[in-house]
Amino acid sequence: MARLTRQQDAFGQEIWDHFNGREACEIVERDDGDIAVSGGPAAYFGPFDQWPQFERDAIELAAGRVLDIGCGAGRVGLHLQSRGLKVTGIDNSPLAVKVCKARGLTDTRLLTAAQVSRKLGTFDTIMMYGNNFGLMENFRRARWLLRRFHAMTGPRACILAGTLDPYDTKDPLHLSYHRFNRRRGRWPGQARIRVRYKRLATPWFDYLLVSRSEMKRIVAGTGWRLARTFDSKGPVYVAVLEKEIGS
């Protein structure tokens, strides 16, 4: 998704309001008409001791220079920075970047995932927490981005990719959406959504949710491999992608 204008920055406005002590919520609208209230902006500010255990365990693998993709309010970047790691946070939301800077994340930039390149330098860890593997959007774009990430990371680099297994549900609305996607030639977990807050709304964008077997299919041949996963008690998990030997 491209950089957001002021009228499109619903996500940034909600976390900016929360940061400034105002009540805020987040509405996620899907293209089948489903409308849901998310966990809200407070989740983007959660301190490390309030993170779910699987996220706390997985982030111990982060090392060296870190790129935090979709840095939001900075919860991941600030934690890693406090551990002494050099972190570059990127987000397509101008207000999210503003919040991160105000909270003390030293290197925060207004960039989309597709805009990162070796011009930023070489990284050892790429963070995609908070289901941000979804920002890959679709199968083809995910493989293109993974190859790009491969070129801008060190030989022992890893990607810590947060995602959600879309098949781990009994909700008839979600199961119906899987069928809807299959009929139009899309992956079942390839959601088309937008975020709404007050009078603001992001553009519609694809958000890719994948099972572990689909993750393996995506990374095959990109120079990365699925090394392991850190699992929650529900559908959310963190995939650890490592560079293939000799790639």
What does this entry look like structurally?
The chain is of the alpha/beta class. Helices cover 27% and strands 28% of the residues. The protein has one domain (53-191, 206-243): Vaccinia Virus protein VP39 (Rossmann fold, 3-Layer(aba) Sandwich), CATH 3.40.50. It has helices at 10-19, 53-58, 75-82, 94-103, 139-151, 172-183, 212-219; strands at 27-30, 35-37, 65-69, 86-91, 107-110, 123-128, 153-164, 190-197, 200-201, 205-208, 224-231, 236-243. The chain has a 7-stranded mixed sheet, sandwiched between helices. Strands 1, 2, 8, 9 and 10 form a 5-stranded antiparallel sheet that branches.
Outline of the structure:
With 247 residues, this protein is an alpha/beta fold. The chain has seven helices and twelve strands. The strands form two sheets. Strands 5-4-3-6-7-12-11 form a seven-stranded mixed β-sheet, sandwiched between helices. Strands 1, 2, 8, 9 and 10 form a five-stranded antiparallel β-sheet that branches.
